[in-house]
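Can you give me the bound-state structure? Components:
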Amino acid sequence: MEQNNELSARQSLDLITETLNRSRKEITRVNGKYFILWGILMTVFSLVICYFWKISGKAQWNILWFAMPLVGYPFVYHMSKKDEKLPSNLVTKIIKGIWTLYGIFACSMATVCMVIASTFTETSSMGVTPALVLLFGIAESISGIVLKNWFIIIGGWIIGIGGVIIYYLSDVNAEQMLIFAFAGIILALTGVIVKRQNI
Amino acid sequence: MFPKLDPILHSELRLAVMSVLSDVESADFTYLKTQTEATSGNLSVQIDKLSAAGYITVEKGFKGRMPCTTCKITEKGLEAFRQYVEALRTYLK
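Here's the bound-state model for the whole set.
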């Protein structure tokens, strides 16, 4: 009887653990595709901006970044319609919160810097790349902590710190967009890991 | 002396449903069915029992034209689930 009780208790705990893990895996895995989408968009946009900036010599091509959400959100809307039946949990809420905040911070900072640069004549341009890259790296690393994945944590650190170092050490103009292209590739890879990993 | 296990939760399917619901905001019937690999009839009966005990709330509505049953764990249900897990742990000590 005592043995039966112990077996029953263990079976019940195993059932709880298995069910929870299966559900978590399913919910988290589906979110991988959004990382892949934004990663691909980020890489494509940075390469396009880099190309036009390089051939024209004008940093104003950076305004194209504002078109990225306009292209991305219709895709997100279409993709999320298929996931309507999937519930959200704490992990997906935190991940969504992190990247929504990053998007808000990045857009606000870019807008403020554009306004300042166009208002004050003594400031022809304001480099927002280091701040945006650092923020991106932090967001990526926090995502890695939430998803319990060292590759994502270290990837975020490399993008954040590496991106800032490359920006300040090299005399780059349009080529600084390649930092974002690399960040986009890491973001897409994060999506692939999320889709495949067993949390 | 071992603590008594909650008879409402001490059933494989009801426990699986509560495990899923303890981790999510809410879940619809189809998702619960997929996760628990139960038949619609059996799942429906167990959901009703959990609802009658006040452990979950059940909301019936529509998503587009399709009927949709959404389940959500209550505070009472969450506390019962927590106590159930604690009780299980004492059995294994």
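A couple of observations. Residues 12-92 of chain B form a domain with the Arc Repressor Mutant, subunit A fold (CATH 1.10.10.10). The longest strand of chain B covers residues 56-63.
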